[in-house]
Amino acid sequence: ATDLAALLTETIPAGTPFALRVFGHIEPDSCRTDLEIPVSPLDPAEAASLISGIEAMNLAKTPIAASLSAVSSDLAGVAGERVVILLTDGEETCGGDPALAIRGLRAGGADVRVNIVGYAIEEESLRQTFESWAVLGNGQYLNAPTAGELADSMKKAVAVPYRIHRGEEVVAEGIAGGPAHSLAPGDYTIRFRRD
Questions:
Q1: What is the pTM of this model?
Q2: 56: Cβ–Cβ under 8 A, 6 or more apart, which residues?
C-alpha cells in the first residue's frame, strides 16, 4: 500500500482523471470487487490516505474478470485514452474469464490500454498467462517479484511509451519518466504511442 500511495503522490499528476477498484480487502472467501474511488480528478493526498488504509484479507478470492468488466462503467464519461492497471498477486479464482473481459473492453469502442503488474508471481505459466492478457489489452506485463520492485513496476505501468524520430527513422524509444537518451545534435520529433 505504501508503494501505491507514493505512486499517487510522486508519479501521477494531480488532477488526472483517476478511479480505484479493489478486491480481496473486505471479507474472506468473497468475490466482491469495490469501486473505492469513483472517477474524479486525482487528489493525491486523499487517494494515498485511502490506499494506505487498505489491507488484503487472508483467504480472499481474486475476481479479476469481474473487476475488468466493471471498468467500462467505472470510467464512463472519461474522454481519451484510458490506462487500466491490474495489480494482482494471483490468478482468477472466481470463475471469470479475464481474457474475454479484456476483449470486451477493447471491442467497446473505448481507447483502452490494459497493463498488468504481477506481484510475487512464481509460476512461469501464470506469468505467461498475464503476458497474453496484456497483449490482448494492447498493454504490457510487468513482473514484480518482491515488494522492493513493486514501485518501479507500477511507475512503468502508468508511464506513456514514446518513440523519438529523426525524419521517419526511429532513433530511440522508451517510456515517459524513464532513462534519458544520448542523441547527436539535430532536430527530433517525440511521438507518444497510443496504439
A1: 0.82
A2: 24, 25, 89
